[in-house]
Give the backbone structure.
Amino acid sequence: SVVIIVKVKNVNEFKPKFNKKHFEFNLIEGSPIGTVIGSLQGSAVDEDFNDTIQYFIVKNKKFGIEVDNKGLISIRSAINFEKESRNSAEEFKYMLIAKNPGVIRSEADYDEASLLINLIKANGSPVFNQSIVCKFGEKHDGCR
C-alpha cells in the first residue's frame, strides 16, 4: 500500500482593493522625521492575505515621505515649504499602489488610488523692523 499526502495551499487569486480611491492628508511644515501623516487601508477578497498587502508611492520624488506595509504614511526626510512648494503650490499629488507580494504581471495584480498632501506652512519667527524700548518703574511709565 502507498500513502499519498496532498497539501492544499491557498493561493491569492484576487488583487487587493483600497477602501477608497482618493486619500487626502494635511502636513505641517517642520514636522519631525517619523511623523505619521495618515493611514491607507486596503483589503483582499482572500481574507487569509489581508496581512500581506504591500503599499507603494509611485515616483515619490517631490519630498521625503514613505508608506509602510501597514499603510502608514510618514515623513522620511525633512520637508522645507519654500524649497518644495515651487510656484506657491501647497499641495502634492501622488499615485498609490496596493499589491499582493510577488511580481506584478498585469493590472489584475494591483489596485491604484490617489494621494493628496496639503502642505501647511508653519509660522516662522516674527521679524521686528524697529526696536522699541519700554521702561517701567517710578520714573518711567511706558514705551518710546
